[in-house]
Amino acid sequence: MAIAVYRGPTYTIELANPTVARLWGRTRDQLLGKGLFEALPEVAGLGYEELLDDVMATGLPHAAHAMEAQHDRNGQRETAYWDFVYVPMHAADGHINGVMVVATEVTEQVLARQQVQQLNQELETRVQERTRQLEVAQQATERQRRQWHELFMRAPAGICIFDGPDWVYEFVNPGYQAMFPGRELLGKRLVDALPEVADQPLMAILHHVYDTGEPFEASEVLVPLARTAHGPVEDIYFDLTYQARCNETGQIDGFVTYAQDVTARVLARREREAQQGEMQRVFEQAPVAIGLFVGEELCITALNPRMAALLGLPADQLLGRPLLEGLPELKGQGFDDLMRQVQTTQVPFVGQELPVTLTRDGEPLVTYYNLVYQPFYSAMGQVEGVFEVAVEVTEQVLARQQVQYLNEELAVINEELTATNEELHESNGQLVRTNADLDNFVYTASHDLKSPISNIEGLLALLPELPPGAVLTDEYVAPVLDRMHESIGRFQRTIAHLTDVSRLQAEFAQPAETVSLAAVIEDVRQDLHFQFLESGAVLEVTVKDTQPRVFSPKNLHSLIYNLLSNALKYRHPERTPLVRISCRPAGDILELRVQDNGLGLSVQQQQRLFQLFQRLHTHVEGSGVGLYAVKKIVENAGGHITVESEPGVGTTFILTFPT
C-alpha cells in the first residue's frame, strides 16, 4: 500500500512511505517537505487538486477507482492508474489541516481490463466477420485468461473468487493462501474451508454483496479466524473489498475478494495508543508540575493538574493562552525571557529555589521552586517550545530561612553568653581570691590575736599580787577588774568562733564513704552522755539502718552532734527533754527528721536561724556557728534543710538528701 500525508494549502508532503516513493519514481528526500504538485508537476491539472480541495473543504473522505495519473519514472513519463482514498487530517484544535492518502496502483489491472475489452471487441468483430478465425480468437482469449490469471497471482494483495450461491473457492492467489498456511481452500465452500466464519457478521456482508451487487469496502475489519487448520482462533484484521461478479447474462454468479492482513498494523497502532494513554496517565499523575509552552508567545499547550495548581487557575482557563496573558503577574519576573532563551539556544535551564510571585486568593504571594526548562522538539527535529518541570520548595526555603534566622539569633546569644561566662569566670576568680584572703585573714587574725590576749590575761593575773589588798577590794577597782576579765573571756570566745568558721570550709570537703547512720547517732549519744544524764533526756531513734548513699562520716557526725546538742541545750525547763530521730526513704530522696520538745522558735527567729553568729537564746552559751555549719553541710551534700517550730512546744529539723 502506498501511504502519504499532505499538510496545508499547498499539500506539503509530510510523510511518504517507501512504496509511494518507488511508485512515484522519486526518492523520499525529493518528496518530503515539498508541495505535492511541486514535487510531481506531471500530475497537475489531472483533477487531483479539485479532489483534495473538496476533502479539505468538506471534511468528507473521497474514494477513487482506477483514476489516471502521469508519472516520470524509469526515465520516461508513464500513464498510471490508482485506487485510492483521501482522508481528511485534523489538527489538535479540530480544524482540517491536511489529507492522508492510502493508494494501490492498479495500472496493470486497468490495462489488462482495457486490453480484455479491446480483445473482446476484436474477438466479437472477428466472430462476426470471420467465423473461420474462431480458433485463433479462442487462443487469444485463452492467452488473455492466462494473463489475467498471472496478474492476479502476482498481485501483492490477497485475492480470491467465490463461485455460485454456495460460495465455492474458485480462485485463490498466493497472497490470499499465505494468510491461511496449510488450509485447503480451492474447491471448498467458504463455510467448509473456514467454518469459524459461519456465525460471524461477515456472512451478512457477503450475502448483501451477492444479493444486491453493491460492493463492500472497509479497513481494519475484525474477522476471528484460525490461520492454520488446527490452530487457535485469533483476531485478524483485514482491509477488505468485496466485488460482485456477473456472468455473460448479467446475473451475479459469484464475487471477488481483495483482502490485506493488517493485524500487525492494528496491533502496533493500539500499542502506540496504549503507550500514549500510559504516558498521558503518567503525565496527569506525575508528582511534579509539568507544562508545555509553545511558540514565541509561549502558548500554554499542555499542563498536568499539579502545574495548574501551581499556577493557581483551572487548566481550562489557561490552555491555549499565551503565558503572560493567562498569568499577567509573571510580567517582569524574567521567566518568559528564560524560556525564549532556551528555545533560541536549545540549552536547558535548571533553577534552584527561584522566587516566584503568584496570585493566591487575590493576593500576591512569593513562593519558591526548583524548575527545569527543556527544549521541546517537533517530529522534524525543530524546536517548537519549552517543556517545564517544577517542584515547589517554599516550605523548605522558609524553614531554612527560619533556621538561619534562629542560628543568627543563637550566635548573638552565644556571644552574649560567652561574654557573660567570661565575666562570671572573672567574678568567680575574684570570689575565690577574696575567700582565700578572708580565710587567711580570719586565720591570721585569730592566730595573731591569741598572743596579745594571753599577755593581757597574764598581766591581769599578776594584779592581785602587786597592789595592796585594800586597792583590789575597793568598790571601784574590783568591778573594773571583773569587767576586764569578762571582756578578755568574750574576746577569746570570739577568736575561737573565728577559728571555727575558718575551719568549716576545709571540713566541708571531707571524703565521702558508706556509713551507718545508726552507728553515727550512737557515737554522738556517747559524746553527749553527761548532758543526757544531767538533763534526764530521752532519745528515740528510728532509722532502720538507712543512711545517705554518699556522705562524709565526719560531716555526718558534726551534723547529728549539732542538732542533738542544741535539742539538749535549748530544752524546756518544765518537762523532761524528748528527742526523736527518724530517717526514711520518700520517693527519690532520703528524709532525716530531728524533733524535740524544747523551747521552740517564733517565726521571726526561724527566719534568722541559720545565719552566722546568730544566737536566738541568750540564757545558755553558744557561738551562733553550729546551725550555720549544719546548713552548709547539708547543702554541700546536695540536700536541703527546713525547720518547723512553735514557741513553747518544740522544734523539728527536716533534712532531705538525694538517694
From TrEMBL:
Biological process, per Gene Ontology: osmosensory signaling via phosphorelay pathway
> What is the uppermost EC class here?
transferase
EC numbers, comma separated: 2.7.13.3
Under the heading InterPro entries, the entry gives:
BphY/WalK/GraS-like (IPR050351), HATPase_C_sf (IPR036890), HATPase_dom (IPR003594), His_kinase_dom (IPR005467), HisK_dim/P_dom (IPR003661), HisK_dim/P_sf (IPR036097), PAS (IPR000014), PAS-like_dom_sf (IPR035965)
Q: Which UniProt keywords apply?
A: Coiled coil, Kinase, Membrane, Phosphoprotein, Transferase
Q: Which PROSITE patterns match?
A: HIS_KIN
Coiled coil spans? 113-140
Enumerate the GO terms in the molecular function aspect.
Answer: phosphorelay response regulator activity; phosphorelay sensor kinase activity; protein kinase activator activity
Which NCBIfam families does this chain map to? sensory_box
Q: What is this protein called?
A: histidine kinase
Q: Which organism is it from?
A: Hymenobacter setariae
